[in-house]
Amino acid sequence: MLVLTEADWIEVGRAIEEIRARRPEAAELLREALDLATAAQPKTLTTSEVASIVGVTPQTVRNWVDRGWIPSRRRHRRGRREIPREALDGLLAFRAANPIEPATGLTDAQIDTAIREHRAAKAPGDPGHGGARQGHARKGPEVPEPAGR
């Protein structure tokens, strides 16, 4: 499945405007095709879909949900987790703003702090503002920072 971020859609819009200058009819057809694709975009994604897009394992995504780092919901008690598309956009923006090398060995507490700072920097009207704290996911237990880190 192809999933485009907000930045991707902006780039596509710019490309269509460039095409419109040379071939207006082609640009209009492309715009109509994109409108259909946008309508077909899922409003929620599974943990596996998010993992594939972000480049982590599905278990990592489940861990993030359990910690309250990204929101999710289940339609029934044992159903698969549904992650709002806006949460993926917010996650991708967070990762772009906070590149973390796996070898750095950040603790959960350090990651929690980075997420809180990223959310605080967003304006209340921005998509994804507040993240998991909007009632989509339960907050995971507070995890103390391991000794020696």
How is this structure best summarized?
By secondary structure, the protein is mainly α.
Provide the descriptors you would attach to this structure in a database record.
single chain, 149 residues, mainly alpha, Multidrug-efflux Transporter Regulator, Chain: A, Domain 2, 2 domains, two-stranded antiparallel sheet, 6 helices, 2 strands, globular
Map the helices and strands:
Blueprint: H1 6-22, H2 24-40, E1 44-45, H3 47-54, H4 58-67, E2 83-84, H5 85-97, H6 108-121
Antiparallel strand pairs: 1-2
Helix pairs in contact: 1-2, 3-4
Describe this structure in words.
The protein is mainly α and about 150 residues long. It folds into two domains: about 5-40; about 45-135, Multidrug-efflux Transporter Regulator, Chain: A, Domain 2 (Orthogonal Bundle). The protein is about 55% helix and about 5% strand. The protein has six helices and two strands. The chain has helices at about 5-20, 25-40, 45-55, 60-65, 85-95, 110-120; strands at about 45, 85. The chain has a two-stranded antiparallel sheet with strand order 1-2. Helix 3 (about 45-55) crosses helix 4 (about 60-65). The longest helix is centred in the first third of the chain and has 17 residues, at about 5-20. The protein is globular, with a radius of gyration of 18 Å. The N and C termini lie far apart (about 40 Å).
